[in-house]
UniProtKB/TrEMBL annotation:
Coiled coil: none annotated. One of its GO terms (cellular component) is cytosol. The gene is fliS. This is Flagellar secretion chaperone FliS. Gene3D superfamilies: Flagellar protein FliS. Belongs to the FliS family. The keyword Calcium does not apply. One of its GO terms (biological process) is bacterial-type flagellum assembly. NCBIfam families: fliS. Keywords: Bacterial flagellum biogenesis, Cell projection, Chaperone, Cilium, Cytoplasm, Flagellum. It is found in: Cytoplasm, Cytosol. It comes from Paraburkholderia solisilvae.
Length: 144
């Protein structure tokens, strides 16, 4: 089905992803989760448009897994307080909408969740420079 060149490219991509994860800051890891969830939703939309129910379900399942086991699980309710609680509720809503999208084959629900993720991702990206500055400041104080 695939040529040996494709297998090599796949292996290279896996090594690149693993290296990226291993070298990523905590802030970057969350950004990667947003990217992965949105990519899975994009794949689900494609498969929905193609009428490929099995692949659509797999992609939606992947998006749900990233949201629940990645984004939602990483929330620190003790530090994040009300914001973490609201994000927790929003992530739960997103997973319900993704399940409904799969059951009803409703692309508008996929678009809705993608837009919600995009909004949070944009805010997360915007705080990146401040997070990096604080991390650098913390490292400098630790070295003293």
């Amino acid at each position: 089905m695939f040529s040996p060149g494709h297998a090599g490219a796949g292996a290279y991509a896996r090594v690149g992803n693993e290296t990226g994860v291993m070298n990523a800051s905590p802030h970057r890891l969350i950004a990667m989760l947003f990217e992965g969830a949105r990519k899975a939703i994009g794949q689900a939309r494609f498969h929905m448009q193609q009428g490929n129910v099995g692949r659509r379900g797999e992609a939606i399942g992947k998006a749900i897994s990233i949201i629940e086991s990645g984004l939602q699980a990483s929330l620190d309710r003790n530090v994040g307080g009300e914001i973490a609680e609201r994000l927790d509720a929003l992530y739960s809503y997103m997973t319900r909408r993704l399940l409904q999208a799969n059951i009803k084959s409703d692309e508008s629900m996929l678009i809705e969740v993608d837009r919600l993720l995009a909004t949070i991702e944009e805010a997360w990206t915007a705080i990146g420079p401040e997070v990096a500055r604080m991390a650098a400041q913390g490292s400098a104080e630790t070295m003293r």
